[in-house]
Specification:
Number of domains: 3
Structural class: alpha/beta
CATH topology of the largest domain: FAD/NAD(P)-binding domain
Distance between the termini: 18 Å
Strand content: 15-25%
Largest sheet: 7 strands, mixed
Helix content: 25-40%
Number of helices: 17
CATH class of the largest domain: Alpha Beta
Strand order of the largest sheet: 8-7-18-19-20-17-21
Radius of gyration: 23 Å
CATH architecture of the largest domain: 3-Layer(bba) Sandwich
Shape: globular
CATH superfamily of the largest domain: FAD/NAD(P)-binding domain
Number of strands: 22
């Protein structure tokens, strides 16, 4: 074996970089192994058409932890986020539209176009959502109590449960509703208008291969609102330079701390000796010795492809075979000669700098999922469009634009033996996406200069996201908190001594948060300080 590191990290995505930074800052020798020729994982900015650049997979900012931003010194390195002037713009089938506008009063005015009652209910809804989101914010940078961990786990559970216990009964009911109900059932308890329910319900299907009628989908809605931008809770924004700018700044911080980053170094297997990790073997055949192996790869990739089943406890291996992964996502970047002209609001305006949601009702979203289950995708998929070039002129030539298309629902595995690597299947999906946009913005196709497309299989092959799952696994109740990825290993430690998990397959889950990387590093260092593992050299 070559080298002898305190920690080797599999995958140079943002969580891997965050974990590496904290470990190196504490004095450990750390090496990050990235399979691609660029660091950043799903948060990378690349040219996809001559003169046009954009984020490859992740595409918008809110959930990145302020503590991580501060500790890594990202702002002084050049981190800059432009907040959306309004959150979302939803064209409707009848030619109308709804904006989640900037501020409570503007949004209430928008809601009154559809329902006075919904406008009046909005302040209480926001207060409820913010109160429960504060619970998530409080838990995001804390390690979940580990089932089977004895008294220490019970104490951790009691400590983390204190905030919930201090809530009033009404708030406790809200928490229960959001963690267990479908998005539709939850929103039906607050609003009457289908457009209003769609505006909030969209968050429940982002990166979630499910219907808004699926029990538990309300939690995914909540997961997408516990972030902040520039100190403003729940806001979303665009990273100047694309999402890849964030990970490049993180890589700079890592290198300054002493992290060794190796590109084009795909890991083939985690090596285990005597019940403890010994290091990794690269696809090149090189073996690298390490006291700890930390996986930024998702659980489905780590345990089902990078480890010998004989090195895993039988029950754990069986459960990992059943681990649910596949977010139903199809991701596109499109080079445009001009801004799209929406029938509902054709002229250029603030809606072009928002999240443009092409899914006017919960019924529309449900049908998209039903079609995907039956046929592979819907003729009218759910499309979120962002046009970051409206605020970032580094992404496209003057007077031209880049559109990010984040699309749902697309089956991770196509039915009837069809395959995503068949060009006809991928083109069929692209046509369905473009047809959907054309329906709401006639003439869109004429403005398309070029595009890139990543099907669920494309996301897996390019970025290592099994099933194309941008969350590294379903965000369902059985795969959350202390049960992420499986009960008994929710504390970032794998079933082999010296093996850890720092990616989105650990608490608190998906999104560009940095929280799993931060928390995992804390646990690695705690193990070292407690003497459970050899001290760093």
């Amino acid at each position: 074996m070559t080298g002898r590191y305190d920690a080797v990290i599999i995958g140079g995505g943002h969580n891997g970089l965050v974990c590496a930074f904290y470990l190196a800052r504490a004095g450990l020798s750390v090496r990050v192994l990235e399979r691609r020729d660029v660091v950043g994982g799903a948060a990378v900015t690349e040219e996809f058409h001559p003169g046009f650049r954009n984020s490859v997979a992740s595409y918008t900012v809110s959930l990145l932890q302020p503590k991580v931003i501060a500790d890594m010194g990202l702002v002084k390195r050049g981190y800059r986020v432009i907040e959306r002037p309004i959150s979302n713009f939803l064209p409707q089938e009848d030619g109308g539209y709804l904006k989640l506008a900037g501020g409570l009063e503007r949004t209430q005015a928008e809601f009154r176009k559809f329902s006075n009652a919904d406008a009046e209910a909005l302040p209480a809804y926001y207060d409820m959502l913010d109160g429960v989101a504060d619970l998530l914010r409080d838990m995001a940078l804390k390690t979940p109590p580990n089932a089977g961990g004895g008294w220490s786990a019970l104490i951790d559970a009691a400590m983390q449960g204190r905030r919930f216990a201090k809530m009033g009964l009404a708030q406790q009911r809200d928490v229960l509703d959001l963690f267990t109900k479908s998005a539709r059932d939850f929103l039906n308890g607050w609003f009457d208008s289908e457009a209003v329910k769609a505006a909030f319900g969209f968050d429940a299907v982002v990166g979630n291969y499910a219907s808004p009628d699926t029990p538990g989908s309300a939690y995914v809605l909540l997961h997408h609102v516990f972030g902040e931008v520039n100190g403003k809770k729940g806001a979303w924004g665009h990273s100047i330079g694309g999402m890849g700018r964030i990970t490049q700044l993180m890589a700079d911080a890592c290198r300054e701390a002493g992290v060794e980053i190796s590109l084009e170094s795909p890991v083939a297997q985690v090596l285990v000796d005597g019940g403890m990790v010994a290091g990794v073997r690269l696809e090149s055949g090189e073996e690298i010795a390490a006291r700890r192996v930390i996986a930024n790869a998702g659980p489905a990739l780590l345990y089902n492809r990078l480890m010998d089943p004989a090195d895993l406890p039988a029950d754990f291996a069986r459960r990992m075979k059943g681990y649910k992964a596949g977010s139903g996502t199809f991701r596109m970047n499109v080079a445009l000669s001009d801004l799209p002209r929406f029938s509902a609001l054709p002229e250029a305006g603030e809606h072009h700098r928002s999240g443009i949601i092409l899914a006017p009702t919960l019924d529309y979203m449900d049908q998209s999922f039903v079609d995907a289950r039956a046929y592979g995708w819907s003729k009218r998929p759910i499309v979120e469009m962002l046009i970051p070039s409206t605020v970032d002129d580094s992404l496209a030539p003057a007077s031209q634009h880049v559109a990010s298309l984040f699309c749902q629902q697309f089956a991770p595995v196509l039915p009837d033996g069809r395959r995503w690597d068949d060009p006809k299947e991928e083109q069929g999906a692209i046509d369905a996406i473009f047809d959907t946009i054309e329906h709401f913005a006639p003439g869109f196709r004429k403005t398309v200069l070029g595009y890139s497309a990543l099907s669920p299989l494309g996301l897996e092959r390019k970025l290592g996201l099994v099933g194309g799952d941008i969350m590294h696994g379903h965000m369902s109740l059985d795969q959350l908190w202390a049960a992420r990825p499986v009960l008994g290993h929710g504390n970032y430690r794998g079933p082999v001594r010296g093996l850890y998990m720092c990616g989105a397959g650990a608490h608190p889950g998906g999104g560009v948060t940095g929280a799993p990387g931060h928390n995992c590093a804390h646990e690695v260092l705690r193990d070292g300080n407690s003497g459970r593992w050899p001290q760093a050299v």
